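User: Please predict the structure of the protein below. I'd like the answer in structure-token form so I can feed it into my own downstream comparison script.

Assistant: Understood. Taking the following sequence of 91 residues as input:
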Amino acid sequence: MLPLHGQDRKAWFVCILVKIASANDPTPIIAEGYWHGHIATVPSGASGFGYDPLFQIDASGKTAAELSPAEKQALSHRGQAVRTLRHKLER
């Protein structure tokens, strides 16, 4: 891993979900989720995949790989987008 000391370590994940009724749907329903954190200096945790051991959540200080599946679903960009889409569809 390349050293990133002294550099901007902010990081975030984005998930965009779109529900369309047809290819010509004039009013798609769009839901977004953002998960902000920063890049950890060392990987930590055994859960998850990809960048999870390096993505550190600012509020808790844990990496995504240190979260339980339920915690990750509650905080993640995907979980946020799914909840937002569900809310919009229920209206």
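That's the full token string. The first helix runs from residue 69 to 75.
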